[in-house]
Amino acid sequence: MDDLSIGLSVVAVALVVLVVVTLAIGINIIPQGHVYTVERFGRYSRTLESGLGLIAPYIERIGRRVNVMEQVIEVPSQEAFTRDNAGVKIDAVVFYQVLDAAKASYEISNLETAMMTLTMTNIRTVVGSMDLDQLLSHRDEINERLLHVMDAASSPWGVKMTRIEIKDILPPADLAGAMARQMKAEREKRASVLEAEGHRQADILRAEGRKQSAILEAEGRREAAFRDAEGRERSAEAEARATSLISEAISQGDLAAANFLVAEKYVDAIKALATAPNQRVVVVPIEAASLAGTLGGIAEITRSVFGEGAAQTRKSSGLPPKVGPSGGSPS
């Protein structure tokens, strides 16, 4: 009995261990962002998504554990030659994501190494098809071309290329110095061109200002000349009107008007001589008889204009009545 009980106990323990091992093999917890491939008798059967996954123990087994999150590969720095035989050092980063775990597991033996080698090869190809200046100034174009080529090449592996970024492009030191000098000369040239353009614009603006000033000055002179001519015209009209009236009076026998005109011209001539800036002493020979005749003419004009009103004024002011030129009675 004792041997039988011991044997049953061993069998029970073995069964318990077998059940535990079977459950451990058949139940799998798959973390988020990963998938497991299932192989049945060494052949791919299906893919287990994240969460709880069950397989048939001893018949199936977990093949590959695949990360389906977006991943990044650092492409080491490498030397490549441009189309114009300029050697540059270039490095990049590659972002990719596994879309088909079965293809990524069984179509390529080492996915990461294959991706890195493919990227380095295509970088050399793209760099060799471009000039140095184009290479340095068209990084977006390089990234786009690399992404297109890499995506097409990695599609059979169940991989999607999301981004390829060129991190740095380093030309040789001597070439970098020459490029720096070229850039400096180009900037100095642009500065000189801008400065010359500024001077030209300033000269144009100054010339426009002088032109506008000359136009306005000419307009002012024209307006002043027009006003002066208009004033002279009106003065001439007034003088012609006065002369016409005096001529009419003379034609009617009134000699006082002629005496008034002569006296006015005489006084104006004397005034002009007296106010001349280059004269301090003026000697004018004047005959007493002519001056008396002129003054007599003026007095005659006064009497003809005012008449009896002037006499009445003298009487009211207490002045003696004025005697005529013949010494007779007052007029």
Summarize the topology.
Elements: H1 2-26, E1 27-30, E2 34-40, E3 43-48, E4 51-54, E5 60-67, E6 71-81, E7 87-98, H2 101-106, H3 111-128, H4 132-137, H5 139-154, E8 159-170, H6 173-251, H7 255-274, H8 288-306, H9 308-316
Antiparallel strand pairs: 1-4, 2-3, 2-5, 6-7, 7-8
Helix pairs in contact: 3-5, 6-7, 7-8
What features would you describe in this structure?
- This protein is rod-shaped.
- Helix content is 60%, strand content 19%.
- By secondary structure, it is of the alpha+beta class.
- It has nine helices and eight strands.
- A three-stranded antiparallel beta sheet has the order 3-2-5. Strands 6-7-8 form a three-stranded antiparallel beta sheet. A two-stranded antiparallel sheet has the order 1-4.
- The longest helix is centred in the middle third of the chain and has 79 residues, at 173-251.
- The termini are far apart.
- The protein has helices at residues 2-26, 101-106, 111-128, 132-137, 139-154, 173-251, 255-274, 288-306, 308-316, and strands spanning 27-30, 34-40, 43-48, 51-54, 60-67, 71-81, 87-98, 159-170.
